[in-house]
Amino acid sequence: MEETTNGLALGTFGLFNESYPPIMDGVAVAVRNYAYWLHEAGYDTCVVTPRAPGCDDGDPFPVYRYPSIPLTMRKPYRLGLPELDPALRSLCQRTRFALVHAHSPFSAGLLAARVAREQGVPLVATFHSKYRDDFERATHSRRMADLMLKEVIWYYEKADEVWVPQQAVAETLREYGFKGPVEVVDNGNDMASDEPLAPRKEAARLALGRPPGERVLLFVGQHIWEKNPRLVVEALALLQGKPFHLYFVGTGYAADDLRRLVRDRGLDSQVTFAGQVTDREAMHRYYAAADLFLFPSLYDNAPLVVREAAALGVPSIMVAGSTAAGIVTDGINGFLVQDTPDSLSAKIFHLMLHPDEVRRAGEEARRTLARPWRSIVQGEVLDRYLSLIRRHQAAQGR
């Protein structure tokens, strides 16, 4: 139903993305928090996303699903097929959108662009991922990856505004050939709070059965080689027998091979594979129990997991020069290493012996990296949405 806010004729904010719970990644978490906090602010909001096994949408806002098939090389992701669902097309036509926001340029993004065009409303497109890496791995051809990347850039060129979650991501987009304006809109954090950390961390370690004096290490993310989990295992193999325990949280095409690598390096007793964790309270427990977050990914642009760890006072160790590490200052709110097992293992061992450095970096990470989603969505995001709608309606003489 159309409403008026500050003189603007408003309908529904539509958020379109390829992944959404129970498929969990940083973008899915971002989309859900956008929708939740916009809804809480009193704005009609919906999510449009592929159907997935086990989906049981109980959100306070509508989630519209369309048919999909599995992507066998990128489990648990799905290939969306919205064109096979005439009921969805009818639903989109009946819904009066005020603005659509695409968080991917693929099936959901193309559907968002069509809705924006048909209804004459603004299209916002956020660039999240290093698509070239995905394309090259899927096609085994750099030429084919370049052609696919041109289609991606063509998509972003059609958007009314292009957003990125941190400045370093804009540089990736420029490398791919995008020349238009780019807006930086930070990701938020649904684990941020002002509560004292010590009792929460103690309770979390107790719940996981971790003994005093043991350093708890954590990796959260897709189990794919592009995220560099091999470096984590090879580094920890150099520390075998030292008092640490690592939790791998997530799933992906490399999960079985990663388990074999851990077993081959004799680390079975010091590594736990927790699988995909969709319950946010359970995920909170893993972060709270950790001393250090290991995230040496060379693939990620703006990993939300680093900010989630920071919310619980856990500093990250990342690879110097990676796009993902752009928000970390070495020794201040996190730690940087070279992309070698020796460098990572030496840093972990040093920090095991100097817990005060870890504590100080964790406190600064919490202060600088852990902004609540509510603040970002009901402040910056909403202001940008309304400003774009105002300009768009003025240009149309409405």
Classify the secondary structure makeup into a structural class: alpha/beta
Mean pLDDT: 93
Separation, N- and C-terminal Cα atoms? 17 Å
Number of helices: 14
Strand content: 15-25%
What general form does the structure show? globular
* Unreliable segments of 5+ consecutive residues: none
In total, the number of strands is: 17
Oligomeric grouping of the chains: single chain
In which range does the helix fraction lie? 40-55%
Strand count, sense and barrel status of the largest sheet are:
7 strands, parallel
Q: Identify the strand order in the major beta sheet.
A: 5-4-3-8-9-10-11
Radius of gyration from CA coordinates = 21 Å
How would you characterize the overall build of this protein?
By secondary structure, the chain is an alpha/beta fold. It contains 14 helices and 17 strands. It has a seven-stranded parallel sheet, sandwiched between helices. Helix 9 links the parallel strand 13 and strand 14. Helix 4 packs antiparallel against helix 5 and helix 7 crosses helix 10. The longest helix is centred in the C-terminal third of the chain and has 23 residues. It is globular, with a radius of gyration of 21 Å. The protein starts with a strand and ends with a helix. The mean pLDDT is 93.
Keywords for this structure?
single chain; six-stranded parallel sheet; seven-stranded parallel sheet; alpha/beta; 398 residues
Brief sketch in words of this structure:
Helices cover 43% and strands 18% of the residues.
